[in-house]
Amino acid sequence: xxxxxxxxxxxxxxxxxxxxxxxxxxxxxxxxxxxxxxxxxxxxxxxxxxxxxxxxxxxxxxxxxxxxxxxxxxxxxxxxxxxxxxxxxxxxxxxxxxxxxxxxxxxxxxxxxxxxxxxxxxxxxxxxxxxxxxxxxxxxxxxxxxxxxxxxxxxxxxxxxxxxxxxxxxxxxxxxxxxxxxxxxxxxxxxxxxxxxxxxxxxxxxxxxxxxxxxxxxxxxxxxxxxxxxxxxxxxxxxxxxxxxxxxxxxxxxxxxxxxxxxxxxxxxxxxxxxxxxxxxxxxxxxxxxxxxxxxxxxxxxxxxxxxxxxxxxxxxxxxxxxxxxxxxxxxxxxxxxxxxxxxxxxxxxxxxxxxxxxxxxx
Amino acid sequence: xxxxxxxxxxxxxxxxxxxxxxxxxxxxxxxxxxxxxxxxxxxxxxxxxxxxxxxxxxxxxxxxxxxxxxxxxxxxxxxxxxxxxxxxxxxxxxxxxxxxxxxxxxxxxxxxxxxxxxxxxxxxxxxxxxxxxxxxxxxxxxxxxxxxxxxxxxxxxxxxxxxxxxxxxxxxxxxxxxxxxxxxxxxxxxxxxxxxxxxxxxxxxxxxxxxxxxxxxxxxxxxxxxxxxxxxxxxxxxxxxxxxxxxxxxxxxxxxxxxxxxxxxxxxxxxxxxxxxxxxxxxxxxxxxxxxxxxxxxxxxxxxxxxxxxxxxxxxxxxxxxxxxxxxxxxxxxxxxxxxxxxxxxxxxxxxxxxxxxxxxxx
Lengths: 363, 363
Hints:
Chain A is α/β, with parallel strands linked by helices.
């Protein structure tokens, strides 16, 4: 089992990574949590495939436990679901000494994490991500939240877990689309991190797509190491951490325009290609790099399909993104591998053109 | 204008205290907040008496502003009200650069503060308390939250304001019952802080009850200085800060049993007298002090009236208090002025007896 420390100033915590390690969950809970009661929020799909193992783990915990099986869709990432969790906690008489354990993907983690952030003004939280996207993305950073008024993650809180346990064997039962999502987010890291990661990503893409465990484990470790370093230096996303949003301004709008029929990680790939085109048209992007980046994006052709995308509509959704609400849209753009520019403004025409060129790749 | 610094490790902030100082709100906002948009949550009663002045202040702010007039009852300290605030923020396209300003009592501050803690994972928050209870109690500590499932403040977050502005002239339009509430909480400080504050409180009680401004200002300052020192050393209520809960385990249950027909500060006085009796029956309380404490409590006779209180019901509500959910009820008890004992257990019979004796004082 590998251990990576996320060294936040206030709430440092370890991320454990390994294959078939979820049976050590109780041991880690006893090590890292003060909480004597446990409340599990478990993704229903994960419960379908791994329910027997999870139930065994829960039963073996010496103190009080409870669970909530959660159908983790964007639609269910709502106050209503949160409401159910609060009610279960209250009716089960869970106290301040509770730890909430999320077993599932990003949606499950976000809503369980928000419940942990706000139940009794905050109880302990443990994350057991089960999708590649959650492994490499939501396991580091402490972002929690839910959707409201049609806007993704508009209500939320920063709440760091006591620890994260990533068992890569959960990925063996992962839906192909979900794997693509994770790889889409990993594509982003291959652009914003190091040449070494970029090389590894391009070289191993086929193995990764086939779910080859050792490559995936390496990808997860590298991504987490990189993201930790970024988040450690900017816990509340006031500066550097924005580099993690490469492609995301476009991606959120594409997801909305596609009525959430494509997945976040897929939209991120489409968003990244739009930001490549915008970087190019603003003269920011290293021309030698452009082809390299587009080749990496093209690895996803055939795995991502936008349904009759409309550039104007996407643009309008960008204007209502929570990051852009008080005025101009600001972009995170790319100059070179690991060289990211923040808070760039661009004229409407250039933005629209880059959306048009970007969506064409996956139309 | 007096300034007291609340020196928290992460988010230190000043509390300004004075008479007729609210017209300096914009100046202080510009000084302390980065937020360029302001969203005001204003108690409807305060708006009734001071709406003209508040509107003038809002109009004079150079950037975008909006407001929500809030009927601040315990019933309205709900997710539904929070929902309205979130909707107003979303529909008004408020961004991350928003500051939420609460003008009102504790309920208004708690719900506006929670909105600030969670809108876009946290925006700036400013508190302008307008009741004596909020002045001396909720202005320090960063507790925010709302009621859910019939349980007070069960959902919440710690979110420190950028600054607090206490204008004692708001107290001139305060309902008498509200003044009693503040004095009830001040009674607690007179027990847990210093002999000097206790002496001042007893000596000046009549002036305070008549709303005499200079005495009230001194009471607010002393209470805030004391509470700041406590909160500074224990921001998240893991230890020392529990002394602030003297009487509160009883008080929350009394409020619930009285169906919230009495006010929090009044219930605190009734709760304190119960904890005096419990401290005495456990042999904790200095007998010389007992009479002195009861004399102070008796100052409130005539101002607090419980309606057919039922000790058994109160006991049952104590068992469901959020602090006691996972087992034993733990009490904060008193030995002497400034000498408070934490996490004391007591047998059911002794607790019931102390409730009976306590409620008799105000029956």
